[in-house]
Structures are given as C-alpha cells and as structure tokens.
Amino acid sequence: MSERTIANRERRPSRRHFLQAGAAVAGGAALGATPGAADTGNLPPNIPEWMKAPGAPMGDQPYGTPSVYEKGVVKNISKTLPQYLSASGRTPLQELDGIITPNGLFYERHHGGVPTIDPAQHRLMLHGLVDRPLIFAMDDIRRFPSQSRIHFIECSGNPVYTKPYGKTASDLVGLVSCAEWTGVMLKDVLDEAGLQKEAKWLVAEGADAAAMTRSIPIEKCLDDAMLVYSQNGERLRPQQGYPLRLLLPGFEGNMNIKWLRRLKAAAEPVYSREETSKYTDLMPDGTAREFTFTMEAKSIILRPSGGQKLNDTGFHEISGIAWSGHGKIKRVEVSVDDGKSWQTAKLQEPVLTRALTRFRLPWQWDGTPAVIQSRAIDETDYVQPTLAELLAVRGVNHYYHNNAIWPWRITANGEVSNALA
Amino acid sequence: MRWLRSHVALLAAVIAGLAAAAQAEESFHIGRAATPGEIKGWDIDIGHDGSNLPPGSGNVERGRVVVSEQCAACHGADGQGGVGDRLVGGQGTLAGAKPVRTVGSYWPYAPTLFDYIRRAMPQNAPQSLSDEDVYAVSAYILNLNGLVPADAVLDAKTLAAIKMPNRDNFVSDPRPDVR
After folding, report:
1. Contact A88, A258 (CB under 8 A)
2. CA A255, A261, A267: angle at the middle one, nearest 5?
C-alpha cells in the first residue's frame, strides 16, 4: 500500500472486495486458500494466481462491464431523497480521468422517471410557426447529415448555495458530465420544415411522464443546437433520453430535453412550469431571474479532493476539470496556499469549446496543512468567482448557477476535506 | 455577334436554372407531413396568456374532490405539501430569509397551472385527468391561495384573466453579475 501515494479509502480493494471478487469469477479459478495469503502471495517474487489458470472465456461478457474491483465506482445517489421519480444522481468525478464521462456514470436528472421507449414507435413532431409541419421517425432523423461533437452537460443546481455542502467533489459538482454526442444539427431539421420569420422560440417537449417542457431561443437552435441519438459511440442510454435528445451546448442541463418528441416554433416562450416556478433564480430582494440559460465558467480539483488522503509527502499531481458554457477554457489557475498566490496549470489538449478541460499542476507537498483550489478563466476572460462573491450578490436562496471556486483543506496527516463545509 | 450573344444569354439562363435546382436540393425531403389530427393530439402546451386552453370548465368544489382523491397523498389535502411541492401560501416571503415558493406566492401565470397539471400530474398517471377536472383542480388550488372565490368556475377565459401576485417580479438574466 505504500506504493500508493494517494488512495481513496472507499475504492481501495479491501478484504471483503476480494472475497466478492473471488465469488464473482466464473469457473472459480484457483484464488488461493485465503484472501489474506493472496494479498501478498501475488506479489513478486511469487507467480500471481491469475497467471496460473486461464481467465474468463470470450463471450463471458457480451457487453463489457468494469472490473469487479471497481464496483465502488458508481453513480452517487443520495439514500435520503424525498422521492426518486423526480431526482438526480451524480457522476463520481473524483474517480475518473480525462474529459469523457463513461455512459454508465453520466449524471442523471429526470422529472418523471426514465421511460422505456421503443424507437420504432418514437416520433418527433415539428410544428407551429413553420411552413410545413413534419413528423420524423428515428430512421428519418438518422438520414440527415451527421455530426459528432464533445460537450459537457451540467445541471443548473450544481451545487445549491445553502449548507450542508458536500464532502466529495461528486457531492459538490457531480451534476456535470461530458460526452461525444452524435446526431444532426437542429438547423438542418428546422430548414426542412421552413421556419417562419415570426418564430423566435422553440418549445421542446419530452416523451416522459413529466412531458418535460422548455422554451429555447431560436438563435441557439440555429447555432450549435443538435438532435442527438448517440453518446460516446453507442445509442443514448435511457437515462440520457433514448432514443433522441436535444443538445444545447453550454445551456443548463434541464433544457437539453430528453426523449424529445415535439418541437413547436412560437413567437414567445411558453413560460412552462419548469421555466417559471422552477429553474428561475430568486434574488434577495424577492425578484427572480428567468431564462438564465448559460452555465458560467467553473473548475474543481478532483485529485486530491474531499474524502481522499495523501499517504506520503513529496510529489503529487494536482488534477481537475474546468468548463464554460461560454466557450473554451483559456486558463486555469491553482493555489496551494489558501488563495495567497496562484499558478497557471497545464491544460490537456484538445481544449474544446463547451467541453470539460482537464488541468494538471505538479506539486510537492511538504506535509504541512494546506488549502488548495482552482479557478477557471474562459475565452471571454470571465474569472470563476468565490462563493463569498456570489453570495454577496445573489444570496443563499438563488439555488441555481452556483459556479463558485471550491477549496479543499489538507491536514497534516493528509486527509482532504471540504474547506467551506 | 448577335448569335453569340443570344447563346451566352441562353447558357447563363441554363446555369442559373441549374443553380436554382441545386439550391432546391438542399432540402433533404426527409420526414412526412404532420396531419392536423396528429398535431391536435400532441400540442398540449398552454401559452402564458391562456392560448391553446381547451373547451370545458371546472369549479372549486369539484377540484376539492379530485385533489382529495388524486393529489392529497403527495401535496396534502389543503396543498400544504409533503413528498410533493407545497402549493399554498408563502405570499410576502420571497424577499425574506426563508422564501416559500408556491403557486400563490411565486407562479407568474395561472394558465401554466392547467398546462402542468395536465401534462405531468398526478405523477403516477399523467395526462389521465379530463380537461374539466384539470380546470377544477386549478380552481381549487387558486382558491386555496385566495386568488379566486369559493364559487369560482374556471374556463379558458376566466383562467387566463387571473393576474398572479408575483407576475411582475421576474427579471431577465443580467449575468455576468460577479466581477
């Protein structure tokens, strides 16, 4: 274990994990008499157990799943939600590398459960202020010229402004994920119907039990909006809108209507419940901001982050993610001295517009308590604010669009926790 | 010379014709026409001004019955909330430390109530209530909030005419608002 300079306790293969793993291996390959012995018996100079017998045969997993030792890497779903039909589940960000979220770990938010939709019986209706109201089957949608683009989607309440603040990075900002999406440009589909000049908004509606509805400004629809049917190369997962979802890069997650069944061109927004009583941002003076679409620049250090532990002093790579709904990340700055000074982190190429961007900074930890944090600057030169700055303007009841810098506290024994909690 | 000129003109006309044809081909001819009947069945959204509200009406008393049967388990018989959102009260609290956002205190448009109840409620059986019952439940909830009298009958016209107390308190997005 001393070889691991950083370890998440929950993830480290434990004795019990090993027992479960042994039981799960098909054919019951010889796994040693006792797990305790195997813990060391597989290390040099011994021959590891898994080299002494064939492994699982081809076809053992027609659809591959992660190693049994990664069982703990699952969506972060609270066990104390008031209900689970209109609810969210978070991506375990601190367990992942790179910028692409695996499909099974992409965050979820739905408002009336996850429907099971037969794609052969799914239709997209396009009507309202158009010259030719149209209906498309999924086969029709897939005939349009296709595009693949990498974009994040983020829930607008990620996190809220009120305590208690989360313990881990996932607790705090696990309602953001990033994927390569494949589909068609919405503009191409709208051109097919002939948008009338009075059409300033599209009312988008899902085929779920919430018939989730949001109004989208037409400028976005004609810019980079897409109708997507695939995610990271395979068809959308049901939780992500199978068979068809709207993708509005950089706009708050709930507007990326899943299970998309209808687009109505209109002169005005519909002012649906989801854009009046929900997803509006209450200010301290009692007014509320409406149609706050864009997710502003944000970043978070994932390694080391809350719940992890530095087991040794010396070299540690600080690594995290940054993103902006306004475009590309221009720079990420990291402070390891509680905000007194800031260093520029290295950005992993490619840096893509409205996508997660991985940043890294080499760091020598001397074993003294430290507070580390990151701040993102996007291509508009907007600088990610502190929580105090946001609270001073928006108060604690604003609920949505909290993009605060989030510091982590490291104690002398290496334990990492939320510095603002 | 005249011969040449006329042929050049003809050639230009042919090229222009080809260009127009190419432009027409930019349409992919994908999908089929949606019929009025198909659109009518799916076009369920109600404008904030009440546009697209269906015929029919419902009263507060009928709403009380429907709510007790279909809604009370989550929202309480008097809309006080539970697993589901609180629907009643909170007027005057939005600028306070603990704002209570309900239909009465927060929602800007009454027709949205019809839209949302019909499309998404009750949670276990959305789009199952008759339009009359949706009007009735809307009337009951608005009555609990003191926005219509106990003998109110709501239809497309009367629902759209209700002015919600918080209607004028929404502002557009001023961000970036920090730095």
Report:
1. no
2. 60
**Contact assignment for B27 to A192 by CB distance below 8 Å:** yes
Task: List the structure tokens of A259.
Answer: 């299970």
Q: Residue A29 in contact with residue A55, Cβ under 8 Å?
A: yes
Helix (H, G, I), strand (E, B) or coil at A103: helix
Rounded CA gap, A328 and A348, in Å? 13
| pLDDT at residue B7 greater than cutoff 50 | yes
CA distances from B136 to A120, B58, B116, B125 (A): 37, 4, 14, 17
DSSP H/E element including A190: helix A186-193
Note the pTM of the prediction, 2 decimals. 0.90
Contacts with A193 from chain B: Cβ below 8 Å: 31
Beta strands A343-344 and A298-303, pairing class: unpaired
Extended beta strands in A53-200, E state: 87-89, 108-110, 123-128, 134-137, 146-154, 176-185
Q: Residue B27: what pLDDT? A: 87
Chain segment A127-142, per-residue pLDDT in tens: 999 999 999 999 999 9
Is-contact A385 A373, C-beta < 8 A?
no
Backbone angles phi, psi at A245, to 5 degrees: -135, 155
B106: closest CA of chain A, how far (Å):
6
Angle between helices B131-144 and B111-120 (to 10 degrees): 130
Contact A143 B39 (CB under 8 A): no
Distance CA A77, CA A171 (A): 9
